[in-house]
Specification:
The complex is a heterodimer.
Chain A (H helix, E strand, L loop, with lengths): L1 H32 L7 H19 L2 H25 L4 H24 L16 E2 L13 H9 L2 E2 H19 L1 H11 L1 H6 L4 H27 L11 H11 L4 H20 L4 E2 L3 E2 L2 H16 L21
Antiparallel strand pairs in A: 1-2, 3-4
Chain B lengths: L9 H26 L4 H13 L2 H26 L7 H19 L5 H30 L3 H23 L23 H5 L13 H18 L1 H11 L1 H6 L4 H18 L2 H8 L10 H11 L4 H24 L7 H15 L5 H11 L15
Classes of the chains: A mainly alpha, B mainly alpha.
Chain lengths: ~325, ~375
């Protein structure tokens, strides 16, 4: 039974750490599918986490925190859109800029407003998203295996966890079954064709980056208002880039994106759980290797050794009308 | 290139527009200062005083500028080949390994003037090798260099933490860093240069790697604008098709350019390690690799622009530290915001004011913008 306990704990932890990756990854999916590369997922998530924790601390409401997180994240998305859609700037450069502005501003403003070394005050009670017990979770707890799966793994997460996983089928449906999704994919592959059809390329791309903003905001709020009780400086710690890696790993598709995020989440959870443990055959694996594994896997994938990752064709190229 | 903008006179292109962009960036930085409840003008005064107020401050400013010259040049060289090397941070961090190996191996037997060239080679070689893999993957397998270099930043950080904690740390020590280098592996200070002007520099770590940075900046100018290789790099950056037609090997140029870029980033490690700390510590790069992006964009990828841009950022770094004493609400992280704003306005939004300026010039003197002015934008 000890093994089963470890396993359920590990899966539970995997779900928890995968959620911000998943939300950010789906966020990137909307933007990149529309032809706007976005390496500022990290910065937007960080800004969202800060705004969420700050608003929740001041108002005492987790929902207002989430709202603030989403608003600030949309704001940064629009800056990215303004630079890369309206002014046809370099999308990578714009993304880098947003990452820095978010990293610096969250620390400066956090220190100026709350004076706790860049932290926000601890959130308690209704200022946080609490764990939700699914109906009957306590009742079936003792049923072997299935009970454990239901009560330990499926039940007892915060609302945003369920939201994140529901966003996967929703995103799939949106992209592949609606008119908006078709156009969004088209504008990322061949904007001139979309333009010829009389649809505004710029407006379509702006809507895509707004979707990105909503989801990165939710990812940030999850970090600071649900998973943790408040903001600490640099709390995203590269998660935005892991999400980007997962997006490439998943070849810009929603369902594989979920599995990629779960894989990277599992690596993170396992590296924490098994820190310093000696493995049979291999011996002790340095914890740094586990931490670097998502990045190494992405590089190997990008090199085309595990299938080929082909980005949306118009990605990164500003659309210039009438050339 | 598909620039949908009409041509402007050179001094507008290389002088007026960058300066306007920079001013806008600083106006926004001023707004952030207002937001935390301090006076932007007072903050600017403290900052400039802290950067240039006395000999020691100037020496510190130039010490930081040295780092940024290296990383700025690294980003700029890659820009000329229209590659975006975002991995300067990782290449510089790993470059520290090259410095460490040379210094730890030779500091008992060789004098500093023999160790220094070896350390230059060591840091450059390790930095170049770290850039080689992303370069090879870009050239041969088409993986996007931006993503791979970001990944390599994280991998470099993990590798260095592992090495410093488990391999390079001397036995019996708790701190994750190498042993202190002996005086043979410490670079001579350059205080005398400022003291010649009657300034007192006290213990400021400005050292001869500043001179090295200036020499390297000149060599990069020679390389890019005065050699065949530089011409090939710029051709590749301007139009890969034209380069291919001219018989230039794409693979070769991408790999060489990225290795030069990585070598420059790696050489940044010389300044803090051999010039100041005399050991390799965790996170000694402290974001200098990323500042290089802002410096290269501000300096328009030209050494003559990069050196002043690096000194400006050195000023922000040093002045920012002084500012944090004076106004506790504004910590050094203010630099990160300014850096972001400069990248945004001088980089991503560099053409924001162009149409307006173009209109103004067209109405003042239509000839200065050529015939295109009649048709306006899109010509």
């Amino acid at each position: 039974m000890a093994f089963l306990d470890v396993l359920t704990q590990l899966i539970d932890a995997t779900i928890r750490v995968s959620v911000p990756l998943l939300l950010a990854c789906l966020a990137g999916l909307y933007s990149e599918r529309s032809g706007i590369f976005d390496i500022s997922l990290e910065g937007k998530m960080l800004a969202g986490a800060f705004a969420g924790a700050a608003a929740a601390a001041v108002t005492g409401s987790a929902w207002l925190g989430l709202g603030a997180a989403i608003l600030i994240s949309i704001f940064f998305s629009l800056v990215h859109g303004f630079a890369s859609i309206t002014h046809r700037g370099n999308q990578i450069v714009s993304g880098v800029a947003i990452n820095f502005i978010a990293a610096g501003a969250t620390i400066i403003l956090g220190q100026a407003w709350f004076a706790q070394g860049g932290r926000t005050p601890s959130l308690t009670g209704s200022a946080r998203f609490q764990a939700i017990e699914l109906p009957g979770a306590a009742a079936v707890k003792d049923v072997p295996i299935l009970g454990a799966i239901y009560s330990e793994i499926l039940s007892g997460h915060s609302l945003l966890v369920y939201f994140a996983f529901l966003m996967v089928p929703f995103t799939w449906w949106m992209l592949f079954r609606t008119r908006f999704g078709l156009r969004l994919r088209a504008v990322g592959e061949n904007p001139a064709a979309v333009d010829t059809a009389g649809i505004s390329v710029a407006w379509l791309r702006y809507r895509a980056v707004i979707c990105t903003g909503v989801l990165t905001g939710a990812a940030g709020a999850y970090l600071s208002v649900a998973q943790n009780a408040g903001f600490v400086k640099d709390m995203t710690a590269g998660k935005g880039f892991i999400a980007l890696a997962a997006l490439i790993f998943a070849k810009w598709k929603p369902v594989p994106a979920m599995f990629a995020c779960l894989l990277f989440g599992f690596l993170e959870a396992a590296s924490i759980r098994f820190q310093g443990m000696a493995w049979p055959m291999i011996g002790k694996v340095p914890v740094q290797l586990m931490q670097a594994l998502p990045y190494i896997l992405t590089v190997i994938l990008l090199a085309g050794f595990i299938g080929k990752a082909i980005p949306p064709r118009a990605g990164g190229v500003p659309y210039v009308k009438e050339r | 290139m598909s620039r949908p903008y009409a041509k402007l006179p050179g001094w507008v292109d290389y002088g007026l527009i960058p300066i306007i962009n920079l001013l806008v960036a600083f106006v926004f930085a001023g707004l952030v200062v207002l937001l935390v409840g301090e006076s932007p003008l007072h903050a600017a005064a403290v900052l400039v005083e802290g950067a240039f107020g006395n000999g020691q401050n100037i020496a510190y400013t130039l010490f930081y500028a040295t780092n940024f010259i290296f990383t700025g040049l690294a980003v700029a060289v890659a820009f000329h080949c229209s590659l975006f090397n975002i991995g300067g941070e990782g290449q510089a961090y790993i470059g520290g390994l090259g410095v460490a190996i040379v210094c730890l191996a030779f500091d008992r037997i060789l004098p500093w003037w023999l160790i220094f060239p070896l350390a230059i080679l060591g840091s450059a070689a390790v930095g170049a090798l770290w850039a080689l893999i992303p370069a090879y993957l870009q050239a041969k397998r088409g993986s996007h260099i931006v993503i791979t270099t970001i990944m390599f930043n994280f991998i470099a950080a993990s590798v260095m933490v592992y090495l410093l904690v488990d391999v390079l740390k001397p036995a019996g020590s708790m701190a994750p860093q190498t042993r202190d280098f002996l005086p043979n592996a410490q670079l001579p200070k350059m205080g005398w240069m400022l003291e010649a002007f009657g300034l007192s520099v006290r213990s400021a770590p400005l050292n001869i790697s500043f001179l090295l940075a200036l020499v390297v900046a000149f060599l990069i100018w020679v390389l890019i604008w005065r050699t065949k290789l530089g011409y090939e790099i710029r051709t590749m950056g301007f139009s890969p098709k034209a380069a291919r037609y001219a018989g230039i090997s794409e693979t070769r140029i991408i790999i060489i350019t990225m290795m030069i870029s990585g070598a420059l980033a790696g050489m940044m490690a010389l300044n803090p390690i051999m010039g100041d700390q005399h050991r390799v510590q965790l996170d000694f790069v402290t974001g200098a690799g990323f500042v290089g992006i802002a410096v290269a964009l501000m300096g328009r990828s030209h050494p003559a622009g990069i050196v002043p841009a690096a000194i400006l950022f050195g000023m922000l770094y040093q002045g920012g530290a002084e500012l944090a004493f004076e106004m506790p609400a504004i910590s050094r992280d203010m630099i990160v915001i300014i850096q972001g704003l400069v990248i945004l306005f001088a980089g991503a939004l560099e053409n924001m004011f162009r149409p307006t300026i173009q209109t103004i010039f067209a109405s003042l003197s239509p000839r200065s913008v050529g015939l295109a002015a009649a048709k306006g934008e899109g010509a």
